[in-house]
Predict the structure.
Amino acid sequence: MSHAPRLVILDTDPGVDDALALLYLRARPELTLLAITTVFGNADVETTTRNALYLRQRLGLDVPVYRGAAAPLQGPRGPSPLHVHGENGLGDLDLGDFIAPPVDPGAAHERILEAVRAHPGAVTLVAIGPLTNLALALRAAPDIARQVAEVVIMGGAFGGGNVTPYAEANIHNDPDAAAAVFAADWPITLVPLDATMSCVLSNAAAASLAHTAGDGGRLAHDVSRGYAAAYAEHEGLDGCVLHDVAALAWLVRPDLFEAHEGPVTITLDKERRGQSLRTNAPSNVQTCLAACGQTLAAHFVESLQGSTSR
Ligand code: BDR
Ligand code: CA
């Protein structure tokens, strides 16, 4: 039995693995992209928005790009992780003679509210950057939580962070926003580092994509070389981690994850700021604590190879 495609808004900070997530999303017929909303994170919001506009053009996507938050709800923005995502946020990929067109008008959180209201109960928000835009949407209209189909979040870590020993980058970049998002009464699936770190696109698989999956495969290879080098240096990996792809893959292949229900809270003070904590209890939140990473990476490769004409 085939289901109607899910309507997805991708809230993103491109970002190398964000670019890989967009390639995956384009390749999956189960997912229909409604809009891209941007947020600071892997770079400042001007850069992540420029990158989203570049990716929209290169991937031939016919969707609006709305600029979102430039800074967290409180305090200044943290430094960009140049050593992971490069000076330009896209692994120092050569953007050629790309000149960014004007961004689509309207603030990201307001456009999210409009889209959810236009399709009550049908929009899935997939957040793969800091959660500031979602928190702003909730602050402006708390009732929106009841009208969203599902919120899928790449973020958090229960067995050790990647920015501090406790905190993962997307949560660490705006812990106050994350706390508000996890406190709201909407159905959340969290895909933390505990699941994503096993989802590794090997360097051999990336090289093969460059020759077997059209321009999308070339982009997947080229954009991820510096990112893979960072993972080789810091984690000893022969490949790169598909964090943000994993969040979208939850919607297509939930069988690849081990999900546990239970409330999630975010630590807001002192050196543990941005730490995610959970308990097992009935909740509107479920967390993927493990993933079949190898199968997920193979599924990513097959998905891109299956969409070479796009
Ligand atoms: C997350 O942080 C960002 O650097 C990545 O794009 C991903 O969304 C991983 O911790
Ligand atoms: Ca991201």
Q: What stands out?
A: Residues 12-13, 15, 17-18, 42, 128-129, 244 surround calcium ion (ligand 2) (CB under 6 Å). The chain has 13 helices and twelve strands. The first strand starts at residue 6 and ends at 12. The chain has a mean pLDDT of 97.
